[in-house]
Write a structure and sequence with these properties.
about 375 residues; alpha/beta; Quinone Oxidoreductase, Chain A, domain 1; Rossmann fold; 2 domains; 7-stranded mixed beta sheet; 14 helices; 16 strands; about 20% strand; disordered N terminus; binds NADP nicotinamide-adenine-dinucleotide phosphate; enoyl-[acyl-carrier-protein] reductase (NADPH) activity; NADP; enoyl-[acyl-carrier-protein] reductase
């Protein structure tokens, strides 16, 4: 990927581009609060054969999207061909995940019609946009019935990650215990709900904050058995408290979203022959574990990456997981993550939209935002 070190304002005109659509883009890696820009672009032309024009209804801002823009994520984005001015001036639309509505269908596309909901199966195609032309082979139809827009827009990354980590490493049975940190993350919330639906008991760690009791109540409402702050992990009496909760039963699965010192302490709570699965490093600290856990407790550590799972599994397996998750959602067992929607309105200027998105990513970068943010980018007037 070749990126030129030029500022967005040199690249995109905010006045001379014909109106129609809008996207949040960047043309060089770096701090998203600096490199992101809103840019208007014309109506899409009719879709070529085997492609669709979709209107993007909602697209989340996930932590990995930020890392992709920073240039530190292993999965690389695909440049947007129509927005890139030349091969030396590549433009990337932010976002990996999102919900689209089919607007227009090219020749040769089967099984989809106008108005259908779809999600993208090809990673890193750029979803922070009002509309997009996509290959029909790169989308999966999502049932409209029983799913909210937010559930559908966030179905490809966090819920499958939660589901697979709960099932692929330790064979848990109803009544078994698991433990996780980053429990208020969107993944953590999905873990709590899927575990509760399976009858697994969960111990969930979160960072302390002013309104910690209301966050605890929210996670308990989702089905968390216990919610505790990391501070409690440092308390010597905490291990005994956990033993009382579990009745001495071994905790067989730990999920790590944050790494760092608190994960070392959390790992000490795991029982014999347990599995510790790392899927995030939100603290930006390394993970260090006592050797004794491997020798005397037969601990096994794993990493999990949903992108790898998708690349290794067949379409049928992907569809099966997708059907399982949509069924949980329709049954009310897997709810929206706590969220807010940032709407970039039809009448807003690109400058104002750029400013708002940069402010938002700066705020997200400071942490403790407390909600998943989704973008709704309207067509321009
Ligand atoms: N491996 C995979 O396949 C996969 C798939 C999905 C997600 N992920 C990763 O999982 C993590 C969570 O993703 P998400 O979409 O669920 O995130 P999210 O909803 O945006 O939540 C972010 C979480 O990170 C916590 N956090 C942020 N900074 C922290 C710090 N310095 N120390 C401790 N905790 C911190 C937040 O806690 P506060 O509320 O206290 O800030 C919150 O719980 C990310 O690292 C993401 O990249 C990995």
């Amino acid at each position: 990927m070749r990126l030129q070190n030029i500022t967005p304002s040199n690249t995109f005109s905010t006045s001379s581009v014909p109106s129609g659509n809008r996207a949040i883009v960047y043309n060089s890696n770096g701090d998203p609060a600096r490199v992101l820009s809103a840019v208007s672009f014309p109506e899409l032309s009719s879709p070529p054969p085997d492609t669709l024009n979709i209107r993007l209804l909602l697209a989340p801002i996930n932590p990995a999207d930020i890392n992709v823009i920073e240039g530190i994520y292993p999965a690389k984005p695909h440049p947007d061909v129509s927005l890139s001015q030349s091969k030396d001036l590549l433009v990337f639309v932010g976002g990996n995940e999102g919900l689209g509505e089919v607007m227009e269908i090219g020749d040769g596309v089967a099984g989809l019609q106008k108005g259908d909901w779809v999600v993208l199966t090809k990673a890193q195609t750029g979803t922070w946009s009002s509309a997009k032309n996509v290959a029909s082979s790169d989308v999966l139809k999502v049932p409209r019935q029983g799913l909210s827009e937010v559930q559908a827009a966030t179905i490809t990354v966090n819920p499958p990650t939660a589901y697979n980590m709960l099932h692929d490493f330790a064979q848990l049975a109803e009544g078994d215990w698991m433990i996780q940190n980053g429990a208020n993350s969107a993944v953590g919330q999905a873990v709590i709900q899927i575990a509760a639906a399976k009858g697994y008991k969960t111990i969930n760690f979160i960072r302390d904050r002013e309104d910690v009791e209301s966050l605890k109540s929210h996670l308990e409402l989702l089905g968390a058995t216990h919610v505790v702050t990391y501070d409690e992990l440092f308390d010597k009496s905490f291990r005994a408290k956990v033993k009382t909760w579990t009745g001495g039963k071994d905790i067989r699965l730990g999920l790590n979203c944050v790494s760092g010192k608190t994960t070392t302490l959390m790992a000490r709570l795991l029982g014999d022959s347990a599995h510790l699965v790392s899927y995030g490093a939100m603290s930006k600290e390394p993970l260090s574990l006592p050797t004794s856990l491997f020798i005397f407790k037969n601990l096994t550590c794993h990493g999990f990456w949903q992108t790898r799972w998708y690349s290794e599994k067949s379409l049928e397996e992907r569809q099966e997981l997708f059907d399982t998750l949509t069924a949980l959602m329709r049954d009310g067992k897997l709810r929206d993550p706590g969220h807010e929607i940032l709407t970039i309105g039809r009448m807003e200027s690109d400058d104002s939209a750029s400013e708002r998105i940069r402010e938002l990513v700066a705020q997200l970068g400071r942490g403790m935002y407390g909600k998943k943010v989704l973008l709704r980018i309207e067509e321009t007037a």
